[in-house]
Amino acid sequence: MTCCGPGNMVAVESDASAIENDDAALNALSRKLGDGTAQLEFAVPDAHCAACIRTIETALGSMDGVRSARVNLTRRRVRVNYDLAGRPSELAAAIRASGYHTYVLDPTQDGDGDPVFGEMVRALGVAGFAAGNIMLFSVSVWSGADAATRDLFHWISAIIALPAIVYSGRIFFRSAWRALRVGKTNMDVPISIGVILVTALSLLETLNSGKHAYFDGATMLLFFLLIGRTLDHVMRERARNAISGLARLQPRGGTIVRPDGSRDYVKLDEIQPGMELEIKAGERVPVDSRLISTGSSFDYSIISGESLPHHVESGETVIAGAACLSGPVQVVAERAAPDSYLSRMASMMDAAETAKTKPRRIADRASSVYAPIVHTIAITTFLAWGIFGGDWHAALMNAVAVLIITCPCALALAVPIVHVVAAGRLFERGILMKDGAALERIAEIDSVAFDKTGTLTRGNPRLVAASLPDDAATEMAAALASASTHPLLRQ
Question: pTM of the full predicted structure?
Answer without folding.
Answer: 0.56
